[in-house]
Amino acid sequence: MILRPKPSRSRHGVLGGAPSIAPMATVPTWLRGAALDTQTVAGQGIEDIAVTAGAAIGALDAVVRRRERWAGAWRQRLALSAAAVTARQAGRVEDEAALRDAVLLTRPGDNVGPAGLFLLAWRRLASRPADDLLTEKNVAAVLEDLGLTLNDEAVSDLTDDLRQLAANTGTVETLVGAFAAAERYGLRRVLGAWLADVLLAQRLGWTPAIPLLGAEATLVVGTGRARRPVTAALAAGAETEADWAKSLLAAQARAALRAIDLFAELERRADRLLAVAPKLRAKAADVVVEKLLSDDAIVASEQIAGMSDRGLRRLFDRLVELGAVCELSGRATFRIYGL
């Protein structure tokens, strides 16, 4: 593990003070080299792939348990990536920038559009305890956000199935079972990815959950190219249950490594923001810093007590000048800022 000094902050979240030392997000070289693409998966046994996936999730678990102040921004950035893939798979054209606009530039309670609802579904996963997400209320809400429909009785049956799945199966069975449960109720695979992420978080004690499989754009049945439901593929003899498990484990490993890479990138950016934070003289600057660390992005027109619109714009200009934040929209107006 590599150790490095952190600029002017303690690991307890106090700005300024003596420098501290904290580990970077690292991945073993052998794990980085075990890229689980389709061809690699086809040539390996499920035991080998399970070892790689377990190591990747273990490395991610170490990252999660650091509980960094900027972990909220990390989770929400992962949610944005998952929502963009969800939109693309649904045949929509919105990319990450358009999804961000749909949610951040819409007043609370207004319609964010179908693609914006995809982002809200993944943001829900990234901001709530896993146990809470598996209640009938939240399962029904995420179904609505994803454009899926079940009656109240079916929602109740689905949540019961998920609780049993979480309590009585191993990790691999839970992963496969999440997708099978979604398909058993005639729902799209995106719900299987959402449920699998929630169940993994519940098993590992992550609070909140981490969006992983939603951003895995190459998630397919087994080693084949056809994007068919797993139950239909198995019934037709086109794939085996082991093929499907291998495909899902490989996707989970890729997603975990991608999340770790984003963690390392945002760590560098958060360190820069926290290093310059003690130098900021604007009123409520500490509130702005916390918002930047807690979310994917905030708009320049954010209503913050003790700070005028002009003061907030000047603060953002200063932070950009210092290299502490990025302007994410590329526009002259309706600007959006984040790590």
From TrEMBL:
Pfam families: DUF1403 (PF07183)
InterPro entries per the UniProt record, alphabetical: DUF1403 (IPR009843)
Protein name: DUF1403 family protein
